[in-house]
Design goal:
With 65 residues, the chain is an alpha+beta fold. It is built from one helix and three strands; from the N terminus they run βββα. It has one helix spanning 49-63; strands at 5-14, 20-32, 35-43. The chain has a three-stranded antiparallel beta sheet. The longest helix is centred in the C-terminal third of the chain and has 15 residues, at 49-63. The radius of gyration is 14 Å and the shape is flat. It starts with a strand and ends with a helix.
Amino acid sequence: MAVILLFAQIVSTKKPDGKTYQYLHIVESYREGRTVKKRRVASLGIPTPNKTLSVTKAQHMTSAE
């Protein structure tokens, strides 16, 4: 039985000019044999409080089922 888990992940990237940017991704976690791997399903861009809150609410609603 394959179990696939989707979750929101904030990824930080440091650019050569020294600035740090954060991006909001939807990530899938899965297994290949004994190894757990992650794959980016969607990139939602730069997180804002409303966007992060919406994703968190959606995660909570799905995990409650």
